[in-house]
Amino acid sequence: MAKAIRFYETGGPEVLKWESVEVGDPGPGEVRIRHEAVGLNFAEIYFRTGLYPAALPAGIGVEAAGVIEAVGAGVSDFMEGDRVTYTGSPLGAYSTDRVMPAEHLIKLPEGIEFETAAAMTMRGLTASYLLRRIHPLEAGDTVLLHAAAGGVGLIFTQWAKLLGINVIGTVSSEEKAAVAKAHGCEHVIVYKRENVAERVREITGGVGVPVVFDSIGATTFEASLDSLARRGLLVAFGTASGPVPPVDPMKLALKGSLFLTRPALADYIADPFERAELAGELFGHVEAGRIKVEINQHYALEEAEQAHRDLEAGKSIGSSVFSF
């Protein structure tokens, strides 16, 4: 019988339950997948705590890779035996098997292993839209990226270097600083002992950066604003430390006519053609070895509670996966 992690109430990691589940056959437009690897992402903590709403009881998890075992009526783009990966709703990736809509799947090239796919589909597509869709960055530009040693950060910095973009990265420790530097960061700021905005001004000759990419949220928001050049853009794409408080638009004017956006991956992969374009470029870099996906934490799926504790404690470097 299939197994899955489910939760019946919001709260800490202890609400996650390892259970047997019935999967059944795929309906029209659906497929049944046998997972080979499942991704672990901070977004899942948001669902578990209730920051992101979910109808309870619920499965959890938004990213996995595996093999199609059965195809429902009306599915023409996939067949039994296809290697696939996916990220996004519906929840339920923390499972050995599942039925889900075929429209959310991405075919996985033979040159990319399942664990690599589970570790990079969400993170890689996030890096893809941040670099290729948000702002017209050019070779020689310098940007600030928080959490530079995280899963998104390590992919982002490697990709930015390919594009000739200089990255100033922030990290929490010397160990993470070394990792970020090795993956392409031109400058690394250890935020626990350095003032981020002051260091950014020093590095940029007092000008600031045109774009800040901030996945941390509450604790980094002010430093992010203060690191921007006049008419700069703050891309607030995550809330790892909690949501950003309400912002008075006048504050943006007083700090240099700044721009603020809060993008979501779902809106950049909703269109199948755009998703294919973003994924194709990502997969091409990974297959060619130009971008390396670092998997530094492996868990069994039944260890989801501990995995969430480690993720919340900031113990992770690079990507984390549940392996079978």
Describe the structure.
By secondary structure, the chain is α/β, with parallel strands linked by helices. It has two domains: 2-122 and 273-323, Medium-chain alcohol dehydrogenases, catalytic domain (Quinone Oxidoreductase, Chain A, domain 1, Alpha-Beta Complex); 135-261, Rossmann fold (3-Layer(aba) Sandwich). The chain is 30% helix and 27% strand. It is built from ten helices and 16 strands. The strands form three sheets. Strands 3, 5, 6, 7, 8, 15 and 16 form a seven-stranded mixed β-sheet that branches. The protein has a six-stranded parallel β-sheet with strand order 11-10-9-12-13-14, sandwiched between helices. β9 (142-145), α3 (151-162) and β10 form a beta-alpha-beta unit. This is Quinone oxidoreductase. InterPro entries: ADH-like_C, ADH-like_N, ER, GroES-like_sf, NAD(P)-bd_dom_sf, QOR-like, Quin_OxRdtase/zeta-crystal_CS. Keywords: NADP, Oxidoreductase.
